[in-house]
Amino acid sequence: KEQPGETPQPAPRRIFHERQRITGLPLYFQGYLSVRHSRCQEFRVYWTELRGTMLFFYDDKKATTYSQKLDLSALTSATNVYPDENGSAQFILMLSNGELELKANDHECGKEWKGFILTVTELSVPPDQSLLPEQLRRMHEVLEKEKERRMMLNNCSSASLNRKSPPSSTSTALPVCFYAVSRQEAIEMLEKNPSCGNLILRPGSDSKNYAITIRYRLD
């Protein structure tokens, strides 16, 4: 059994695809993190995934469903904490609704976690001179992916969801309610545009079929 102190290996493909389906967000970074909330005394170890601007915490590396999640879009700062006697790297995430203390296994791992988090929240690679060239390259790759994801989300959100347009004469054309977005992005689009429709057709999790996201109005 893999221990938190060892070099983390990717989750099996089946688990990866199931988490992708549940979260609807791209995976940027993953590994073990010890987490402590501001009002708690003890750290708790989670298998953690950075997807989009969200952190998903899993009780076990093989769990398909996350036990907690954290929206990083409201992040105001990430501050280092002096390393402990074991050499662990700690930093505190300050958010508009509180704070969360994270501890990585070692200094290099801590730099990566903090670097990737700042990359997706600030949309720029942090100017940390201690980052290695390979780490910087991966962060620049994530930066481009996150910029592209947000651009697609913004374009889809601003586009009309009106489904009254005449159908295309081409039999292979997709309906006007189709958008190439994830499940989470489809939910956000419908929430931001309630007067423009309540249904989005999108690619399925297997990339071969289609899925439907519907917004229900509760009276």
UniProtKB/TrEMBL annotation:
Listed GO biological process terms: cell surface receptor protein tyrosine kinase signaling pathway; positive regulation of B cell receptor signaling pathway
**PH domain: residues covered:** 26-122
Classification via InterPro entries: PH-like_dom_sf, PH_domain, SH2_dom_sf, STAP1/STAP2
What PROSITE patterns does this protein's entry cite? PH_DOMAIN
The protein's matches in SMART domains, at most eight in alphabetical order, are given as: PH
- Show the GO MF annotations: protein kinase binding; signaling adaptor activity
- By what name is this protein known? STAP1 protein
Source organism per entry reads Pedionomus torquatus (Plains-wanderer)
